[in-house]
TrEMBL record:
The chain crosses the membrane at residues 30-49, 61-80, 86-107, 119-139, 151-169, 176-193, 199-217. It holds the Pfam family DUF6064. It comes from Marinobacter segnicrescens. Keywords: Membrane, Transmembrane, Transmembrane helix. This is MFS transporter permease.
Length: 219
C-alpha cells in the first residue's frame, strides 16, 4: 500500500515535459493565426452565451465542433501521437465529440438562460478554458510560444466545451455531449500535473464543477 501511494502522475507519462511543450510550441508556430485569435473568439463565445438567440448559439456550437475535429487532426493525430501511442485511442471519441456538437448546432438551440447556478458555472468554465488556462505558461515559467490555447489544444478545448454545453444543451443532448470532454478533462488535468504544471488542478476542478451542475439534472 505504501508503494502504491508513492506513485506520482509523472510516473505514468511516456514523455518528458520538455518534449511535450516543444510539441506545443511547434504547433503554435504552424498555426499561429489561430493562437492569436483564440482569446478573441473566446470572448465572442461568451457573448453568444450571454445573449438569447438560436442563430448565435448554433454558430457557437458549430465553431466548437469544428475545433474538436481540427484539434484531432492537427495535434492529436499529426503531433501528439508521435510521443504518446495511447493517444490513438482518443482519436475516435474526439471525432465523435466534434460530430455531436455539429449535429447539436443544427438542432433548435436554447432560447432561455439556464438556472442561475448552472449558468454561472458554465460561464466560469468558458472563461477558464478560453482566457485563463492559456496563461498557465506564466505559472510554469514557460515562454509565451508554449501557451496552449483552446482552438489548438485539447485541454482548454475540453473545459470550454463543458461550459458551452452546460449553457445550451438540454435533455439527451446534454447527456451525450458531456462525457467525452469530462473524461478528457480528467486525463488532461492528470497529465498536466505529471508535467509539473499546477494548471492541471484547474482542469480537475473544472470537471468537478461540471459534474456538480449536471448530476442534479439526471434525477
Amino acid at each position: 500500500m505504501e508503494t502504491l501511494f508513492s506513485y506520482h502522475p509523472r510516473d505514468l507519462l511516456l514523455f518528458s515535459p520538455r518534449v511535450y511543450w516543444t510539441l506545443v510550441a511547434g504547433n503554435n508556430e504552424v498555426y499561429w493565426p489561430l493562437a492569436l485569435l483564440a482569446p478573441v473568439v473566446g470572448l465572442w463565445l461568451m457573448w453568444t452565451l450571454a445573449k438569447l438567440g438560436q442563430a448565435r448559439q448554433r454558430t457557437g456550437l458549430a465553431v466548437l465542433g469544428a475545433a474538436w475535429l481540427f484539434v484531432t487532426w492537427s495535434f492529436l493525430w499529426a503531433e501528439y501521437r508521435s510521443i504518446n501511442w495511447a493517444i490513438t485511442w482518443a482519436i475516435g471519441p474526439f471525432v465523435l465529440q466534434g460530430c455531436l456538437l455539429l449535429v447539436l448546432a443544427g438542432t433548435a438551440g436554447s432560447t432561455s438562460i439556464p438556472a442561475r447556478h448552472r449558468y454561472l458555472i458554465a460561464m466560469m468554465l468558458v472563461a477558464w478554458g478560453t482566457l485563463i488556462h492559456p496563461l498557465g505558461f506564466l505559472l510554469d515559467d514557460r515562454p509565451l510560444g508554449e501557451a496552449d490555447s483552446w482552438l489548438l489544444f485539447p485541454d482548454p478545448l475540453s473545459i470550454t466545451t463543458l461550459g458551452v454545453v452546460l449553457a445550451i444543451a438540454r435533455g439527451r443532448w446534454l447527456a451525450l455531449s458531456l462525457p467525452i470532454p469530462l473524461l478528457w478533462s480528467l486525463v488532461g488535468g492528470t497529465t498536466l500535473l505529471g508535467l509539473g504544471s499546477p494548471i492541471g488542478w484547474g482542469m480537475l476542478a473544472g470537471a468537478g464543477l461540471a459534474l456538480a451542475a449536471w448530476l442534479p439534472l439526471t434525477r
